[in-house]
C-alpha cells in the first residue's frame, strides 16, 4: 500500500494517481483471491481424497419432525405474544 501511495506522488500532473493506485491494489486483491482459490482446490483434490487418511465415523444427528414443528410453533407464539403486549 505504501508503494502505491509513493507511486502516486511521483506521477506527472496529467496522470490520475488514484486510478493507478486503485488498479494496482485491486490487481493484488484478485491475485490473492486466485491464490486462495487454488490452495482450496488443491486441498480438496489432493488431500481430502487421500485413501491413506482415516475416515471419520461422525454421523449426522437425526432431528424428528415433531421437534421441528414444536419449536416453530413456540417461536411463532412467542413473537405473537410480544407484538400483542406492545
How many β-strand stretches?
0
Name the assembly state: single chain
Hey, roughly how much beta strand do the residues contain?
A: under 5%
Q: Structural class, judged by helices and strands? A: mainly alpha
Overall shape: flat
| Low-pLDDT sequence parts | none
Number of helices: 3
Largest beta-sheet characterization: none
Family: Belongs to the ADP/ATP translocase tlc family.
InterPro entries: ADP_ATP_car_bac_type (IPR004667)
Main location: membrane
Protein name: ADP,ATP carrier protein
How would you characterize this protein structure?
By secondary structure, the protein is mostly helical. Helices cover 70% and strands 0% of the residues. The protein contains three helices and no strands. The chain has helices at 2-9, 17-47, 65-85. The mean pLDDT is 77. One of its GO terms (cellular component) is chloroplast membrane.
